[in-house]
Design goal:
The protein is of the alpha+beta class and 312 residues long. It is built from twelve helices and ten strands. It has one domain: Beta-lactamase (3-Layer(aba) Sandwich), CATH 3.40.710.10. Helix content is 35%, strand content 10%.
C-alpha cells in the first residue's frame, strides 16, 4: 500500500524540508543520470517519471537490497517522456520516493512511517517487519490457476509488454512474500505488513482532513494538493484509464471507490485496498492472504464496499 509513502512525503513538505516542485537531483544528486536532471519530485508521486521498469536484469534478491535498487534507478533512463503520461511504477515507486525521503530526513521510509504515523495513530502497520511480529503474519496464498486463467492478460501479460517488464524484473512470485528476507526488508511499494484495521485507521485520518483523535498527521493544504488530479488517461503500464493524484488512485468510472467522486486510496498486491472518503468522512479497507490475479485490486473488496455504503 502506498498511502504511507505519500503521507511521509507530504509531511516533509509541510515541515519545509522538501519542495515537491524541485528536481529530484537536488536531494539525490546521483539521480541526474540518464537525462533526469530536471525531473521534479512530484512526477515520482504521480507515476509520471518514466521509471516503472528496469533494463538491467536483476534477481529477486535485489529487492531486499536498498542500495542496489536505488543505484540502478539513479542510473536508469526513462522509458517515456517524463511528465507526459502515467505508467504504474508498481515496484520502483517505493525506492524512488523512499530514497528522496531518506536523503532529506536521514531516516528510512519504514522508520519515518513508524515514528511519525503508525505510533501516533496506534496503527499496527510496518514497512520492514520486526522479527517479534512474525508469528502474527499469515502466509500468502497465490491465486489459483483458474483465477489466473480468468484474469487473462492482466495476470499473464505479453512478454514484450511494459507490464511484463515492470513485474518481471526483478522476478516476483507470490511465494517471495513468505520469505523472512521479504518481511525484514523495506520494499515500500509492496511489503507493508498490517491488517485492514490498521490501513483503515491511517486512511481515516486522511478522510477527516488529516487528523484523527486529536492527532494531526497531515495539513489540510497538503492533503488537498495530494488528492488533486495530476493526470487522467490510459496508463502506459496498466493499459486502462487511471486518474492519479500525487500517488493516490482517485475515483473514476474505471475505478469506482464508492459514491463520492472525491474518494481516493490505493490497491495492494493480490487484492488489498484502502480508501478514504472525505465526503462521508469515513474510511474502509480490505486485506487478504488469498491473492487474486491481475494488478487492479479485487472484486471482493468492491463487493464489501457496496455493503459498507448500504449500511451507512
Amino acid at each position: 500500500m502506498r498511502g504511507p509513502l505519500r503521507r511521509c512525503a507530504r509531511d516533509l513538505r509541510d515541515r519545509g524540508k522538501l519542495d515537491l516542485d524541485a528536481p529530484v537531483a537536488r536531494y539525490w544528486p546521483e539521480f541526474a543520470q540518464g537525462g533526469k536532471q530536471s525531473l521534479p519530485v512530484h512526477w515520482l508521486l504521480s507515476h509520471r517519471a518514466g521509471l516503472a521498469a528496469l533494463r538491467s536484469p536483476l534477481p529477486t534478491e535485489a529487492l531486499f537490497d536498498w542500495q542496489r535498487m536505488t543505484s540502478v534507478l539513479a542510473a536508469e533512463a526513462p522509458w517515456w517522456q517524463p511528465g507526459s503520461r502515467s505508467g504504474y511504477h508498481a515496484m520502483t515507486y517505493g525506492y524512488l520516493v523512499g530514497e528522496v525521503l531518506r536523503r532529506v530526513d536521514g531516516r528510512t521510509l519504514g522508520a519515518f512511517f513508524r515514528d511519525e504515523v503508525a505510533q501516533s495513530l496506534g496503527a499496527e502497520f510496518w514497512i520492514g517487519l520486526p522479527a517479534a511480529e512474525n508469528a502474527r503474519v499469515a502466509e500468502i496464498v497465490p491465486p489459483s490457476a483458474e483465477a489466473v486463467a480468468a484474469a487473462g492478460a492482466a495476470a499473464q501479460p505479453a512478454p514484450d509488454s511494459l507490464l511484463a517488464k515492470v513485474m518481471g524484473n526483478p522476478p516476483l512470485a507470490p511465494s517471495a512474500a513468505n520469505l523472512p528476507a521479504w518481511r525484514r526488508a523495506e520494499i515500500p511499494a509492496a511489503n507493508g505488513h498490517g491488517n485492514a484495521r490498521s490501513v483503515a485507521r491511517v486512511m481515516a485520518a486522511l478522510a477527516c482532513g488529516g487528523s484523527l483523535g486529536g492527532v494531526r498527521v497531515l495539513s489540510e493544504a497538503a492533503l488537498t494538493r495530494a488528492t488533486a488530479e495530476q493526470c487522467f488517461g490510459e496508463d502506459l503500464v496498466l493499459g486502462v484509464p487511471m486518474r492519479w493524484g500525487q500517488g493516490f488512485m482517485l475515483a473514476s468510472a474505471a475505478l469506482p471507490l464508492g459514491p463520492s467522486k472525491r474518494a481516493f486510496g490505493h490497491g495492494g498486491w493480490g487484492g488489498s485496498l484502502g480508501v478514504a472518503d472525505p465526503d462521508a468522512r469515513v474510511s474502509w479497507a480490505y486485506a487478504m492472504n488469498q491473492m487474486s490475479a491481475g494488478t487492479l485490486g479485487d472484486t471482493r473488496a468492491f463487493e464489501l464496499a457496496q455493503a459498507f455504503y448500504a449500511a451507512l
